[in-house]
Amino acid sequence: MGGQPTSQPREVPPARTNRKMLEAVLAAEQKAVKDYTERARQAEEFGDKGLVVQLEDMVREESSHSEETERILRDWPV
To answer: For the chain, what are the domain ranges?
Structure first.
């Protein structure tokens, strides 16, 4: 599909509090949704419907994780 696979995971920012950790989780999930959506678009252009479906499932799962993390942060004790 025109790219080079990476074997390097993304950096995980250090978190000094539980809330900061959840904020980092939320940012990572939102980035994953964006990336998987872009890959699904590329797979569609390439004509790989099976890969499109798999990536759309991944978008759905990451979106669900993101929404749950947002709820936890919204209800976080002040």
So the answer is: 34-78
Neighbours of 66 (CB within 10 A): 19
Question: Whole-model pTM?
Answer: 0.82
Render pLDDT for 20-47 as a digit per residue (tens, 0 to 9). Answer: 999 999 999 999 999 999 999 999 999 9
Amino acid of residue 75: D
Answer for the pair 69, 25: CB distance below 8 angstroms, yes or no: yes
Please, what sign has the CA dihedral across residues 7, 13, 14, 18?
negative
Cα 31 from chain centroid?
5
More confident residue, 22 or 5: 22
